[in-house]
Amino acid sequence: MENVEKTLLERTSVRRYEREAIPEETMQFIYDAVRNTPTSYNGQQFSVIDIDDQQLKEELYALTNQKQLKTCNRLLIFCSDYNKITRLAEKKGIDVPPFTNTMDGVIIGIIDASLAMMSAVVAAQAAGLGSNCVGYLRTVDPAKVAELLHLPKGVFVVCGLALGVPREHPDLKPKQPAETVFFKNRYCADEEKLVEDLSAYDSIVKEYNATRAGSTTTNDWCAHILDYYRHAMDYRILDYLKNQGYDIQR
What we know:
The protein is an alpha+beta fold.
């Protein structure tokens, strides 16, 4: 088991895996870490679908063209989930407020599922596994993914997590400097300095992308991320959420 410092500070996104299976005791450790995740109200508004069926992984790969989905040993799908408490409330005859029709209800489910996924990432990394978070599963074709996973009303995909024994060890990506992430007592007091620091970081990312091991690009940070935003403008997530029982009103 890796120590905490190595686990947290040397994590990279792994997309190529060995065929070796993940031991069940390692998966149980990941399960236990996920179950112990802090959640809003201790409501545990999330669930996880653990996929080891190769055909299903191949179908998800066909939708996304994300190779790690078919080469990973296990694929965990983290979902926002209000179905479980709704079913129990119905059995107990308790009225269920329309919390999923509020932005706070949507946000809480996303936060809980995201925290749970990070617990899995840390546990997997500590156990010597590679992992890769796949947000595209949320947006590529939400209705089809929901169909493949048999998601009931009140449940939607937040993110996928590919797991496996790593076949590659990618270079550690440069992250924003502490000065642009951490502020004391209020949001950044010197926005001119903030932009200068971000500009320097933008150049660091461009240099990293041009010189990293494996495939290289000319991408910087700012323009490249904004291209993602432009692409995401075409997603119809609100329509999908309504189909899953989240009729957001406020």
